[in-house]
Amino acid sequence: MSLDQQTELSPDEIREVLSRHETGVLSLAKADEPYAIPISYGYDGESGRFYLRLVSTPESEKRQFLTSSPRARLVVHESNDGSYRSIIAEGTLERVDPDELTVERIVQYGKAKRPLFEIWGETKRDLDIQLFELDPETLGGRAVELDAAESDK
Amino acid sequence: MSATSPTDDYEFTCPQCGEGFAVNDGMRAAVLERGCPICGSPTSTEAFAPCSA
């Protein structure tokens, strides 16, 4: 595979990829300990913000990494017939307190799917559901197109 | 119980997750249309109580 087959996605292409997906991998860190989880998200193409609804319990590993305003990376990727695209968003994950909700936020969280990867074995009243927003400081995307012969390998 | 402001007209309490917060008319309409923003469950007008002055 030659390097010229890899291209950077335009802002419009990034917006299209993020808007047609609803899941990605969120990575957090504590000191030198990494933590990555599959999550579902809502994305507002106009503001460029991600809206996340994360579920944890007091004993969960996730809770340990969801400290106040953690740094985070969100990776969304897709592949289709020899075409591979990936998006990386990086920024600070800001918790949204229920008292900070606005009409706009209610609409955005309404668009966000329920956590598709969360297994809610307990009733919702026993779970700690927290709202977060990610306003990326950096957002980039790349595409790799393999020729037909190479993609058939 | 969440804090209310002069512009808050209702206290919303989700029957599914139990979370509650104060809302104004616009937020109430959005919650009724989009569901509870916390857990995503559908809501009804019964989930809203007028804020006491």
Structure description:
Chain A: It holds the Pfam family Pyridox_ox_2. Chain A: InterPro entries: Pyridox_Oxase-rel (IPR024747), Split_barrel_FMN-bd (IPR012349). Chain A: This is Pyridoxamine 5-phosphate oxidase family protein. The complex is a heterodimer of chains A (153) and B (53). Chain A has four helices and eight strands, in the order E-H-E-E-E-H-E-E-H-E-E-H. Chain A has helices at residues 11-20, 61-65, 103-111, 148-151; strands spanning 6-8, 23-30, 33-44, 49-56, 71-80, 83-96, 128-134, 138-145. The longest helix of chain A is centred in the first third of the chain and has 10 residues, at 11-20. Chain B is an alpha+beta fold and 53 residues long. Chain B has one domain (10-50). The two termini of chain B are 15 Å apart. In chain B, 32% of the residues are buried. The interface between A and B is medium-sized, with 20 and 23 residues.
Mean of residue pLDDT values of chain A: 85
Largest sheet of chain B: 3 strands, antiparallel
How many separate domains of chain B?
Answer: 1
CATH class of chain A: Mainly Beta
User: What is the 3D form of chain B?
Assistant: globular
**Uncertain parts of chain B:** none
Query: Count of DSSP helices of chain A?
Result: 4
Record field, number of beta strands of chain A: 8
Q: CATH topology of chain A, which one? A: Pnp Oxidase, Chain A
| N-to-C span of chain A | 12 Å
Strand order of the largest sheet of chain B: 2-1-3
Mean pLDDT of chain B: 87
Protein name (chain B): Zinc ribbon domain-containing protein
Pfam family, one (chain B): DUF7560
Organism (chain B): Haloferax gibbonsii (strain ATCC 33959 / DSM 4427 / JCM 8863 / NBRC 102184 / NCIMB 2188 / Ma 2.38)
InterPro entries (chain B): DUF7560
